[in-house]
Write a sequence for this structure.
């Protein structure tokens, strides 16, 4: 549970690309995805999503960040196919139980489950969990002040979820900038897109103490941490060994708002995660940090474009997937694949 002194919202995460920074090709959505996919089969789709999302975020203000992080952790492992929602069973250890996913907050899973339940009552067997996760994420971002972007619909839910598929697809807070950039590049993102996605996620995000305490307590404390921030974080994390749920917001200035303050913080040494702070010093990424710190309009525009790109990443259509009856289980078989 987040420390009350920081307690407006949540963390997101990590991962995406381009060794082709200057000429990153546009990746079009596969045929079949449209903005009005449910216009006839489930005409109240967007209305029902809003009926669930708005009160959920109001009652639990960590929901937006939790869902955004869940969305990225889903898309970066095999594409945006709701595979991260699958629960493990005796036959299969699913993605959500890989160590990097164990810190995914429950509010993200909960809001998707609530939307799915409502839609199964309204139009059973019609709306995929992957479409629900994509639209719910977009609507929550808007609710906390972020930009609108289009989400094309018609995804199918994936037929595989294996913990063994996760490693190397997502960034970790203790990675070097070379490794983080390499991971983003493997997903065909530019350096600009990497910076805007990491910053956009972390402006409303939080991290557990274990993800940054090595910067504070040594054996060699990180000199790039602002002394006052270090003092505050040390106080918060002093008892993290007995309470591993203790966490800090990644934007200590305006944690509850989707804004460009995260980039201003990084230029002032106020990055909680080492990988965030490194973006402000690495010559490959610092120009974008500076640009987004200066211009929130450009930040919002680029974030919206990057999210549209992410939302169609390796999506499944047709016979590549199914419409799950429950988001945490495949329809027929108890194993990790069909």
């Amino acid at each position: 549970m987040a420390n009350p002194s920081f307690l407006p919202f949540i963390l997101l995460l990590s991962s995406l690309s381009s060794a082709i920074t200057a000429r990153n090709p546009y990746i079009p959505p596969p045929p079949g995805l449209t903005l009005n996919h449910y216009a006839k089969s489930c005409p109240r789709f967007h209305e029902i999503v809003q009926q669930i999302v708005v009160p959920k975020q109001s009652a639990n203000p960590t929901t937006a960040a939790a869902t955004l992080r869940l969305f990225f952790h889903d898309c970066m492992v095999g594409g945006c196919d709701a595979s991260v929602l699958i629960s493990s069973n005796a036959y299969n250890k699913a993605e959500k139980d890989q160590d990097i996913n164990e810190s995914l907050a429950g509010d993200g899973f909960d809001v998707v489950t609530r939307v799915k339940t409502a839609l199964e009552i309204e139009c059973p067997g019609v709306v995929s969990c992957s479409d629900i996760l994509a639209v719910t994420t977009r609507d929550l971002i808007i609710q906390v002040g972020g930009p609108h972007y289009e989400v094309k619909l018609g995804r199918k839910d994936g037929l595989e979820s294996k913990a063994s598929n996760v490693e190397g697809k997502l960034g970790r807070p203790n990675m070097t900038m070379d490794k983080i950039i390499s991971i983003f590049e493997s997903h065909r993102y530019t350096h600009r897109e990497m910076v805007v996605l990491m910053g956009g996620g972390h402006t409303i995000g939080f991290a557990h103490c274990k993800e940054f305490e090595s910067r504070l307590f040594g054996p060699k404390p990180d000199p790039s941490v602002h002394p006052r921030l270090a003092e505050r974080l040390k106080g918060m994390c002093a008892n993290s060994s007995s309470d591993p749920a203790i966490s800090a917001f990644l934007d200590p200035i305006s944690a509850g708002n989707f804004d460009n303050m995260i980039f201003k913080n990084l230029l002032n040494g106020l990055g909680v995660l080492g990988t965030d702070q490194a973006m402000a010093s690495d010559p490959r990424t610092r120009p974008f940090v500076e640009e987004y710190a200066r211009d929130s309009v450009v930040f919002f525009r680029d974030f919206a474009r990057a999210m549209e790109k992410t939302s169609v990443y390796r999506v499944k259509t047709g016979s590549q997937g199914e419409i799950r009856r429950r988001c945490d289980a495949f329809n027929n078989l108890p194993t990790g694949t069909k």
User: Anything to note?
Assistant: The two ends are 37 Å apart (CA to CA). The CA atoms of residues 191 and 284 lie 7 Å apart. The mean pLDDT is 88.
